[in-house]
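Input.
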Amino acid sequence: MRRGWRAPGVARCAHAGPPPPARRPLYAGGRGSGRRGRSPGGRELAERLTGCGAGEGQKTKTDRGRSKGASDVVVRGARAEDYPAVRELILSVWEDPDDELGIWDYTTANDPDLRPEHTRLVVTARRPVATATLLPRRVRTPRGWVPGAELTLVGCHPEHRGRGYGRAVVRDAFRFMASRGMAVAVFHGEPDFYLRLGCAPVFASVRTELEVVALGGELMGAGRPALAEAGEDDAPVLASLYADRVAVYPGSVARAPEAWVWRVRNRQFHSLFVLEDRRGYSFVSFGREGDGLLVREAAAVDERAARGLLGGLAREARRRGRSSVVLAVPFDNLLARLAFLLGAEKRLRPARTGFAAVTRWEPLLPAGYEVREGSPPEFGADGEVELRFEGRPLLRCRRSALTQLVMGYRSIDDLSLLGKCRPCPLPERERSMLRGDFPVGFPHYSEAPYLFWL
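Output.
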């Protein structure tokens, strides 16, 4: 959403190690790093800007701080003729033409599902001043796959910050998603910004770090399966491995078996390796985890492939003068399990910068459940919602807390212990039912290789 604000979309992720690189969008789910200023009237403006449905062609007066007679502000979807101005806006927010702007150019050129209206704009004086892009994707939830999006490239022009435009464009993006039947957005972004918009941190930061010197000759020795740079003809195999071994967690996004989805845009800093027998792959980054080789994504079909893949990664780390292999994958991944058995250290940190935002509750709920909230729903605010079963109220909580429950990040016992729901404590009958219908899991969101530059 990395991506001034890194887009939630590919706003970056909550990692268990050091904080994600500044390239992620400050605002969110995506890439970017800008600063948001504050000025009188900004909050009021954001509320007015987002009170206009999906925002198509809607106008609203600017905030009180602007001079009388100033032009109206419009929140709407982009049109094809806006693309040159959007490119200029992105470059004004993120200076590296290969990073965020590279994501924009790459996705608009290659993604067949991305249409102009999926880029939301705040326009003043006929000039886009804030933007957010939704990459339409199927997103896995505990209830199965639902229509959703990756939020990315969320940013505001430096000369127009502090007026509420950032909040306005993100709220409009969520409202647009709901109007198009998309149920949940996933992204990495700036906590201070997204928490105020009712988004919920759900992607914990995980690291399994294995010192290369700890590996014996059996895993490191000659004769083990070799790693090779993946080619475009490997895309179907990579997509199959990803679907079977990686996209099994709530928050995962579906990937097509097409070459553009798996392309590495900057091979100086990243590599996509595949085993020579094509029974495992890994996406790695160099120079992002201290002295370690950072493995952002990995999959192996079985134990033998896991040994070959981990051994190959260890040899690659040694070849590059790295002291360790750092796996940023869930602990039940075969590589993480093997590394732990070989003496690796595990680190788990609570979700902080990896978010989910629910825009339609129905697809995420078991049969018989419904969510009551304001009419129309207050997108982009952490208002109170009520969870019901067969018409009977069960509990009330904030939108972000219910998001964590339905995405499997927190259990009903967690919410009760934290005092995040009412009544508190819940009657045991209701609590037992909610335990069974909303089991805790391990949400995990892995971004595709093309979204990374540095």
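The chain has two domains: 1-204+353-366+397-410, 206-349.
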